[in-house]
Amino acid sequence: MELKVSSRSHGDHTIVTIVGEIDLYTAPRLQSEFTRILDESTTTLMVIDMSGVEFCDSTGMNVLLSAHKRLRERGGVLEMAGPRPAVRKILQVTGLDSVFTIHEAVPEELLAAEPQA
Fold first, then answer.
1. pLDDT digits (tens, 9 = 90+) for 11-66
2. Contact 84, 21 (CB under 8 A)
3. Mean pLDDT over residues 88-98, rounded?
4. DSSP label at 106?
5. Which of 40, 61, 36 is nearest to 69 (CA)?
6. CA 63 to chain centroid
7. Each residue's pLDDT tens digit, 74-92
8. Quick one: which of 26, 28, 95, 107 has the fewest CB in 10 Å?
9. Cβ–Cβ under 8 Å, residues 78 and 38
10. Contact 38, 28 (CB under 8 A)
11. Where are the alpha helices (DSSP H) in the chain?
């Protein structure tokens, strides 16, 4: 399955939307997208919209952890929004649900800050 990654930044926050499966084959694409965002922006809050992620293996979790660590090193925060039950279960089993702040959906105040098209 293909992985689609899109991002939009507004002020000090970036919303990254992921659709598809994050696994050994798609994780490098996600890693390079996180690297690009972190290299090109001054984001201090990154919210990963996981509502379109159907599956995430340990490779994918490592990519998310790596982005979390890199953002934290520069004083930022990485949060997740809307993980499906299968992904939420992986987060709980691995204990990562205590590492990441997890929202039911992308916080309204961040969506409200988005420029209107």
1. 889 999 999 999 999 999 999 999 999 998 888 999 999 999 999 999 999 999 99
2. no
3. 94
4. S
5. 61
6. 9
7. 999 999 999 999 999 999 9
8. 95
9. no
10. no
11. 27-40, 58-73, 85-94, 108-112
